[in-house]
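Help needed: design a sequence for this.
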């Protein structure tokens, strides 16, 4: 089976950047395949002889929790489990009389977090091969941490920046499904991200989506059907946002066995996924705005989306301004529109801002607007 959709270009690029010592931040909306890609990059790196340690930090909100996760991952990494862990513990004991028994994770609770992290990275840096710290959903963690204690979050971010600049053998690969630049601005820590390599992750192209479709069939995740004339093009255009998640869930609902799915049958699958039974597939889009923006911004963004949903072709800036009323200055509107493009709700098409996915637009009309 061809593997066009296996992100081979992205993987090669990431591995080569990382091995050259550059730390990387990959921001893209959820369910586009960041975690999948990170897992593959981890394997690719390990094949080159690098040490790769992956932690998932969504849901964490303190530095202590973050360090404990990192320690657990180090203690689980086969090649680090014994000698390295003993070596770090030895070093930590020299720094603090407070550490007696237990492993790394326990020691993390007994030392100043900054000193702990610095010591850990210094020791990893002494290794002969590169160590890559892969931190999945870093942006969500930073946001939750900043909500609790913005100063401490800022300090951690600046410390990590110092670490990635100063420890050539330890490289960071971070992902996030919310705009870390926006959080940086909100909590006054945008400077901490300067110098990191920003790599976007795009949804699949039509060819990649086609290939992914074949993989889903080979794995029997979706039914055995082909696309009748024009049906695949219709699917691609109407979905508008070719994330593996949405492709899979719509195609699961195509009701054709051993035949060719027509445009009408694809349309029927779209209809089904918009029904109350399946609307949960879109709930994250709905919640995202409430969860990740301050209440005033979230309110304005919802109004903007409500206006955008009225026409498939969207609206021009002046229309949004007029409809939002005098309370919203132009700069703010543009910031919101940009954030909505960034998070893949909207695209700018010439002078018009419209929903990127026809399907999401229909969901919005049906359930949100
Ligand atoms: N390139 C790919 N090939 C095959 N399946 C993929 C690919 N990328 C993502 N997936 C699948 O799509 C779903 C969403 O991907 P995930 O990595 O969890 O997204 P994210 O981390 O961006 O939210 C998962 O089930 C994942 O296995
Ligand atoms: Mg993920």
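Sure. Designed sequence:
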């Amino acid at each position: 089976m061809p593997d066009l959709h296996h992100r081979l270009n992205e993987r090669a690029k990431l591995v080569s950047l990382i091995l050259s010592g550059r730390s990387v931040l990959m921001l893209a909306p959820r369910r586009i395949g960041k975690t999948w890609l990170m897992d593959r990059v981890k394997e690719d790196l390990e094949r080159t002889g690098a040490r790769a340690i992956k932690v998932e930090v969504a849901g964490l909100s303190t530095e202590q929790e973050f360090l404990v996760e990192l320690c657990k991952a180090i203690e689980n990494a086969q090649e680090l489990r014994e000698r390295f862990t003993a070596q770090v513990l030895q070093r930590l004991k020299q720094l603090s009389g407070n550490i007696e028994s237990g492993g790394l994770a326990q020691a993390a609770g007994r030392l100043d977090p900054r000193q702990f992290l610095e010591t850990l990275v210094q020791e990893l840096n002494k290794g002969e091969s590169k160590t890559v710290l892969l931190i999945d959903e870093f942006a969500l963690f930073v946001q939750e941490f900043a909500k609790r204690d913005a100063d401490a979050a800022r300090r951690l971010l600046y410390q990590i920046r110092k670490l990635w600049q100063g420890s050539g053998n330890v490289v960071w690969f971070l992902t996030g499904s919310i705009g870390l630049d926006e959080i940086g601005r909100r909590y006054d820590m945008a400077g901490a991200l300067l110098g990191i390599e920003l790599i976007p992750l795009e949804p699949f192209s039509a060819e990649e989506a086609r290939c992914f479709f074949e993989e889903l069939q080979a794995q029997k995740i979706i039914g055995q059907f082909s696309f009748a004339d024009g049906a695949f093009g219709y699917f691609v255009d109407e979905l508008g946002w070719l994330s593996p998640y949405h492709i899979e869930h719509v195609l699961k609902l195509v009701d054709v066995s051993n035949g060719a799915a027509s445009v009408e049958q694809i349309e029927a699958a779209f209809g089904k996924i918009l029904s109350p039974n399946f609307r949960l597939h879109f709930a994250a889009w709905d919640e995202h705005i409430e969860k990740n923006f301050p209440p005033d911004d979230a309110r304005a963004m919802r109004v903007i989306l409500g206006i955008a949903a009225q026409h498939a072709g969207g609206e021009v800036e002046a229309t949004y301004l007029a409809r939002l009323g005098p309370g919203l200055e132009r700069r703010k509107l543009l910031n919101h529109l940009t954030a909505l493009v960034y998070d893949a709700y909207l695209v700018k098409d010439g002078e018009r801002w419209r929903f990127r996915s026809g399907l999401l637009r229909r969901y919005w009309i049906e359930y949100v607007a």
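The mean pLDDT is 93.
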